[in-house]
Every structure is written in structure tokens, then in C-alpha cells.
Design brief:
Length: 238
């Protein structure tokens, strides 16, 4: 038996990186998974890999900043699986540079992916989870929500925003049995970071943490979790 037998999860950013690792582990634990992402080829490859392992997977190409596409993602999930137990907001984007050189387009792209997307998904999840009597929402943040890197204004601002969104929606959700939490990864080996010369760990570490959070008893919530490589600079980093 899997730890998530009979459960249904939506994982945004499920075609690559942390989102794919979480969706894969959830599927291995018996969860029916709907994965969303903008890159169709990656999304289909991830879904096919999970199906080959025996999982039930729905792949829905989705731009998380698009309100209509988010509504369609949740509608298709409910049509196929009939319920929603867990939402993982993992889709995101990174851009940066000296603040005086950051374009409005770059800023808006990061804000839409990292903050507007989780808001839209959370709103849809609440509409399903409230009448159902509960559920879990796990927002993938970053240690940048506590310790900023140089030249990362858009990313850092949005990750602080995700933390605020978690606080606000956890407060709103608790009387309805909806547990909302933030999972803040440190340096994680994903596609865009293969050339970074810093301590790293595999995305599976974050997936295992998300699984633990998702399988807590309904009366418990791990409100925040910070998981980083043992040797990564964190306190007082610059």
C-alpha cells in the first residue's frame, strides 16, 4: 500500500525539476496526479514515465498566470478523478540582475509565475476543498524568502510574497480543514542550475519532504519547512 492511496493531487511545474520529483514520488505512493506546465514536451515525457510505472496521470498544458487555463486544469482534474486532496504550487520562474537593469517585462514574468499562479491555483483549490471538508496546499517557496541573493529582486520579492500568501490562506483555511504550508528549498539540482558550483542536493530530497507534509494527519500542519544542503551558506549569506 502507498501512503497516498486513494488521494488526488495537482502539481504545477510538474514537467521538470522539483515539481516533477514531487509528482513522481506522489504517484509512486499511490496518488492520482494531475501535472501542469507550459512546456508540452516536458509535461508529456514526465506523464509517460509515471504511466509506465503504473500511475494514473493527467497532463494539462497550463500557464499558471492564465486564469482560464487554471480553471480548466482544476475542472479537468475533477472530471477525471472526482476529488482533490493536495495542491502543490511548484511552477515558477527566475530572472534578475542589477535592479536598475531589470525590465518591467522580466519583473512581470516572475511575478506572474511565482505569485499570481499560486494565488489562482489556491483560489480554485479552496472552491473545491471547502465543501469537501478539507485538503492540503503546499507552496514551494525558497530560502530566498528569508535570505536574499544579490541581484535577485524579482525572485526574492515573489518568494516573500508566497510566504505571505501562505500565512493568509492558512488562516482562512483552518476552520475548513484546509492546511496550507510553505516548503522552502535551498540549493536544489534542477535543469537551470546544472552549472552552479555550490553545494546541492537532488530534487528528491524536497519531494520526500513534500510527501511527509502531505501525509500528516488531518489535524496537523507543518506550516513551514526549510530544507537545504548541509554545507550551503545560509545564515548571513551574501
Amino acid at each position: 500500500m502507498g501512503q497516498l492511496d486513494g488521494k488526488v493531487a495537482i502539481v504545477t511545474g510538474g514537467g521538470s525539476g522539483i515539481g516533477r520529483a514531487i509528482a513522481t514520488l506522489f504517484a509512486q505512493e499511490g496518488c492520482c496526479v494531475a501535472i501542469a506546465g507550459r512546456t508540452v514536451a516536458r509535461l508529456e515525457a514526465a506523464a509517460e514515465e509515471m504511466r509506465q510505472a503504473g500511475a494514473e496521470v493527467l497532463a494539462v498544458p497550463t500557464d499558471v498566470a492564465n486564469e482560464e487555463q487554471i480553471a480548466a486544469l482544476f475542472a479537468q482534474t475533477m472530471e477525471k478523478f472526482g476529488r482533490l486532496d493536495v495542491l502543490v504550487n511548484s511552477a515558477g520562474a527566475f530572472d534578475g540582475g542589477p535592479v536598475e537593469d531589470i525590465s518591467l517585462e522580466a519583473w512581470n514574468n516572475v511575478v506572474c509565475a511565482n505569485l499570481t499562479g499560486p494565488f489562482l491555483c489556491t483560489r480554485e483549490a479552496f472552491r473545491i476543498m471547502k465543501p469537501a471538508g478539507g485538503g492540503r496546499i503546499i507552496n514551494i517557496g525558497s530560502i530566498s524568502a528569508q535570505r536574499s541573493r544579490m541581484h535577485s529582486a524579482p525572485y526574492t520579492a515573489t518568494k516573500f510574497g508566497v510566504d505571505g500568501l501562505t500565512h493568509a490562506t492558512a488562516l482562512e483555511g483552518r476552520e475548513y480543514g484546509i492546511a496550507v504550508s510553505s516548503l522552502h528549498p535551498g540549493n536544489t539540482m534542477v535543469e537551470r542550475r546544472v552549472d552552479v558550483d555550490e553545494p546541492m542536493f537532488d530534487a528528491d530530497v524536497i519531494a520526500r519532504t513534500a510527501l511527509f507534509m502531505a501525509t500528516l494527519p488531518p489535524e496537523a500542519n507543518m506550516f513551514q519547512a526549510i530544507v537545504l544542503p548541509l554545507e550551503q551558506l545560509y545564515i548571513g549569506r551574501g
